[in-house]
Design goal:
about 300 residues; 12 helices
């Protein structure tokens, strides 16, 4: 069904499914394993099953986002793209089981051939930011070719009464937007968009009231408090569904179901069209599992018209 419409600095990358054993964290289900055959999907498959350091995850982010170009990049160019040192790229290749970066690049040219993308030389920096967001949305469309993870998330969100929705700092607006629309169809949505010592109290209260799932929006830069809060939510018995910029994000190890949507990093502050759209997709999936969602929307429209709430 359809629903009616109503600060921090850069992050990197996109991703799909985090390996169950990475960094010793609990397993997390994501969108990998069902991706269409694409350069990004083949790269993602290469990274799965490896224990990567934060710097190596940053390199992996960048490679997935620029999958068409990676087989043509030197180690120096990849290091510049990821914002790391050239030796870090070499160590990354070794961590994947290759003798060095040349062997990794040779492998990429064999398993993920792609034509080198044309240089957008006629675009200014603002247009380039828009083009990058378009690419992020295209990648999200590829990921959503398998709707099962989102459908599972929708069922979890619909069944949780109440439904806590967490988003701090840069992700607060995403959480607020989701909670605003979700409250039109879900009987009890609780927005957690301010941190501090009381956030654990609010999670405890939600659990006592019957909550079974927490939805989190997590965007770069990832506040430590978000990771700590999700760990606390899991210890309290909640299933954690997270929308994050990457399957390699720090929140992956404290999420049960992670849904990735890349952010744009071409401007001074990240652009988040893909995470916002994924949030709306989750709303749609949740509505599909709320049998009275349509009736609630119609009731809202009737009351809004009676109050003259909107200018026609």
């Amino acid at each position: 069904m359809s629903t009616p419409s109503a600060d921090d600095s850069r992050g990197t990358g996109t991703g799909t499914e985090r390996d169950a054993g990475a960094e010793g964290g609990a397993g997390v289900e994501g969108l990998s394993g069902h991706l269409p055959d694409s350069p990004a999907a083949r790269l993602q498959a290469l990274f799965e099953g490896h224990r990567l350091t934060p710097t190596q995850r940053r390199i992996a982010h960048s490679m997935v986002r620029r999958a068409a170009e990676v087989p043509f990049l030197s180690s120096v160019e990849l290091a510049e793209l990821a914002g790391v040192s050239q030796p870090s790229v070499t160590r990354f290749a070794v961590a994947l089981g290759f003798d060095g970066y040349p062997a990794l690049r040779k492998h990429l040219r064999e398993v993920a051939p792609a034509e080198q993308s044309a240089e957008p030389g006629s675009y200014n920096e603002y247009q380039q930011a828009v083009e990058a967001e378009i690419e992020n949305l295209k990648h999200l469309a590829e990921v959503l070719a398998d709707p099962r993870p989102v459908q599972r998330a929708g069922r979890l969100l619909a069944a949780s009464r109440p439904l806590p929705v967490l988003g701090l700092r840069a992700a607060a607006s995403q959480a607020y937007g989701f909670a605003y629309f979700a409250a039109k169809v879900h009987p009890d949505v609780r927005l957690l968009h301010e941190g501090g010592t009381m956030i654990h109290d609010r999670i405890d209260a939600a659990v006592r009231a019957g909550a079974t799932t927490l939805l989190c929006f997590a965007l770069p830069r990832h506040p430590r408090e978000v990771v700590d809060t999700l760990a606390y939510a899991k210890s309290a018995g909640l299933t954690v569904v997270t929308v994050a910029d990457s399957a390699f994000a720090p929140v992956a190890k404290v999420s049960d179901l992670l849904l990735p949507a890349a952010v744009g990093t071409g401007l001074a502050f990240d652009t988040v069209c893909a995470p916002m759209l994924l949030g709306r997709v989750l709303l749609e999936a949740m509505c599909d599992d709320l049998p009275d969602a349509q009736a609630r929307l119609e009731e809202f429209d009737t009351r809004a018209a009676a109050r003259g709430l909107f200018v026609e």
